[in-house]
Predict the structure.
Amino acid sequence: MQTSNKELILLVDDDPGNLKRAQTILGEEFRISATTSGKMALSLLSKVTPDLILLDVNMPEMNGFETLKKIRELENGSMIPVVFLTGDNDAETETKCFEAGAMDFVGKPFVSQVLVSRVKRILENRQYQNHLEEMVASQVAEMTRMQDEVHRYAISFHRQVRSKSLFSSIL
């Protein structure tokens, strides 16, 4: 559980200027943790689970696609929404981002309102999804409880019928 009501966003970009700009844009509404490589992000994810990851596509050593694949292999990484950050504003990159499992992508340079809107929308959708999952779990638990109760009544009824049948055959 987070220590603040603000959601935690992990920024991963090898360009410190992009990190600073994204922190400036998002820092008033969200808690920010930033790192400059996929490897450092993976290390950080062993200690903390962010509510969302903003991940640069083109980084040295380990690109964003490789990083996302490794994030998804982590125990806490399978459900974290990821938004790719890219200066490659072409259909092929966009398609590749979605095929890799990203929730969205944001072009660089960032347009403040677009970045904030997309982050907020994804986090809202995640809250709705979590709420629905909780509701489903609650309903499943209630149905299971009711099935168990019906089963107990059926066993009790069966025993009563059997004992009455036994009693009737004795008379």
